[in-house]
Amino acid sequence: MIIVSGAPAAGKTTLSKSLSERFNLPVINKDEIKELLFDTIGVRDEEWGLKLGGASFDLT
């Protein structure tokens, strides 16, 4: 497992994809999980965004 962390717009996704290809590892992205939760639940307000952001972080 390789964990990539950093500030917004620091290149985490780009680095993750490169590492995934090089080492043949899956990428588990918090933002993608959060979007799936939003789409499943169908709610997009700020309060839910904070809750789902925390939940998606816990899942990763």
From TrEMBL:
The source organism is bioreactor metagenome
Q: Which SUPFAM superfamilies match?
A: P-loop containing nucleoside triphosphate hydrolases (SSF52540)
Tell me what this protein is called: Shikimate kinase
